[in-house]
Request: fold
Amino acid sequence: MKMNYPIDSIFLNEDHFESYVLLGEERFLENLSKINIFIGANNSGKSRFLRTFFKEENLGFKFKNFDLIRLNQIIEEYNIELSNYSNRYNLKDYLGSQSNILDKVPNVKYIDRNFELDKHFKERLISLQTILKSKIDDTRQYHGNFLKEIGSKYLKQLDGLTGKDFKRYDFKKIYIPILRGLRPISNNGSSFSHDDIYLKRTLKDYFIGKQESDKDIYTGLRLYEDAKALLVGARKDRDRLRGFEEFLSNNFFGGEMVNIIPRKGDDVVHVSIGNIERPIYELGDGIQAIILLTYPLFFNQGKEMKVFIEEPEHYLHLGFQRVFLEVLTKPEFASFQYFITTHSNHFLDITLDIDGISIYTFKGCSESEEHIFLIENVDNEDANILELLGVRNASVFLSNCTVWVEGITDRIYIRKYLEVYQESLKETVRVFKEDTHYSFVEYGGGNITHWSFLNDKDESHSNIAVERLCGKLFLVSDKDGAGVKIDGECNPKRLAKYERHLKLKNSLKDRYYCLNSREIENTLRPSVLKEVIMEYEANKNPQSLVFDSLIYDRYKDQLLGNFIDKQVKGITRSYAAKSGTINDKVNFAKKAVKYINNIEDMTEDAKIMTEMIYNFIKENNS
Reply:
């Protein structure tokens, strides 16, 4: 088994992390993911933690793809079996000076750079197979056969756990400090140099003892020299630079041609995007930031990398923040794991939409006279963490229009519908990006009555005037049983909802869409629902599930959770919340969108809504 090293936990030993405490008795920072975001107020210890993690060479880890619990189970079983046999037959008498081979193998608390499984356990198992090999007497041979068997038995278990090529872990690291930029700074007040003074300053402040030539700290100031060396190098070097230019073009600049040019006689690179070439200082700070942040990632592809970034949101437009986080998860960076400090609440908003992210809050303990910091792993849906940042969502002010939806699941589905719709017509339509061309706003279901979308004298003057906040909006609402009769009579509440829908339609016209089904989940095709249910029922024989009643016209106006529970035969769990709608809506949505891959996977209701939203976005991004 080929080993790679995604870290699951860090052991915060007292030598390196004496200022940090965790909830609970264990000193493991657990539940690390592909992307790990550290947040907290100023002077909360998060940047210091990041730098300590980066610079220390002998920290203890648990890895996601190495089953430490099972290893310790094997060790424990081995110790018991060998000890019982040894005590029964006084085996130490036969081994004499070699009896230390019977000593207990210690459990493994964590893996560090000094840990070698061969020396810890494997070599002992190999030695057991030969230690009493010579036939001096029958008893010695008997014991020798037992030791050979026990050594072979546990060696086989160990190889099954780790693979025969297990070796000490080895991963590369790169650190992008807050002190960074692409424009060289004057050393003497007049002339400029490509000397990396940002690196020198960073080393002096935080990493005394590291060499100035170290390549694992990237400030951006060496981009000019790097680009020049690649351009005058071998063909493979020129191809690598061209590859980076194509990477920038495809991920950040809508396919426009990008060139990075280290002009002779100049002290900065020039960049052309499309047909326009400019020196780097004439480009927006956000474009400079994207080039700086992604350059060291691109040129380390294929390596086992731990990437440490301080506050990547600096100078990045909210749309670029989203794209940047999405790029971090691309296949070319599959062997990368990221550790990021941030003050950006928008980064936290985006984490709701991207899998593989963990968030940790850092807080100073004011009761202590010493600098003590508390670290806590939090749910990325915990709104209280925004208080640590002292900011509120501002994306509605920085994108060109907004799409107002009831809640997070509506956002998950509609985002996917827009992606699939634009992909299906990509040859003929312009592709728009979230948080650049448009943003989602969640109005919170029943809280819609607190927002004034109407110029209506009957509405309360205390309602929030949406037009003042954001004039360019599109509103999506659930039908939610509005106007549906019960036993031949209209329920008054449902009738009131229906009348409100009519008012919204008359006021907003093409900027309003009321679903032609009860809720957003009801817009899913039967084939998608079937796949989601089968995923939930993964341990059950698919042949025992009966989906004959899963017909769109039968469930589009129903409470979907109740419908699935009653109509799908053979399921082993309940899909309905107390209200009758889908239980665990967010995870259900995340599973569902995996099965919406082309326009045929969308119902007509979903297609009509998506086309209206797309046309609205297009109109406001002419």
About this structure: The first helix runs from residue 46 to 55. Residues 390-394, 457-465, 483-489 have pLDDT under 50 and may be disordered. Residues 2 and 165 are 7 Å apart (CA to CA). DSSP finds 21 helices and 21 strands in the chain.
